[in-house]
Amino acid sequence: MKDILEKLQIKDVNLGSCAGPDDWYEDPEGEEIVSYNPTTGEPIAKVLQATEKTYDKVLKLAVESFKKWRMMPAPKKGEIGDYVWFDGDCDGIQYETEKGIKGVTVTLYDGLGTFIAQTMTDASGNYSFTDLEPGTYEVYVYVPEDYATTTSARYWVAHRDGFTLRKVNQASNTTQWVSLGTYQFRGTDGEYVSLADITYESYLSRQIAFDAVKWVSR
Length: 218
What we know:
Elements: H1 2-7, E1 13-15, E2 17-18, E3 24-25, E4 32-36, E5 43-48, H2 52-69, E6 78-83, E7 105-109, E8 115-120, E9 126-132, E10 135-143, E11 153-159, E12 162-168, E13 176-185, E14 192-195, E15 212-217
Parallel strand pairs: 1-5
Antiparallel strand pairs: 2-3, 4-5, 6-9, 7-8, 10-13, 10-15, 11-12, 11-14
């Protein structure tokens, strides 16, 4: 038991009040609380309680710290956006003549699968969600039933640490949410999920489908 207490830096008598990890207060007038081993009944260690005077001191320091921290700006909210288009000739390459698709519904969910927001692509096929919290998210894409015949859909995830390529067999995962992995996001407009228009499959042999993306907080 002694070795364990030493590793945990627990002394015979331990201070019970502090205003930070390196700002502990020894209060000689404080009463001691004894912790006992429930198995043997032997005393393990003591904690020196704070008196009212020491408690007031710690409370005042906490109030002063709060005044400083409340002036810190809130974390910047993020934005997620992308582009939806129809690959008319199924060659996996986006040409200028192949415009974005207007009116596609895109839905955003939280980590519990709760609906957060919904938007539709504009006249050019663009969409975006704003005011998103930075943090760690697992990214999922939904593969629809129609047009998903490619076995090598190439999704790019732009996140805090760079860009990650994830290949998805859409033909085997229709009507399912597929995970692209878990990443850190700073909440900037430079972070997004995109679906490449090249699969490196035979010409006119496959189609790419795009439906929805969701970020699940982890």
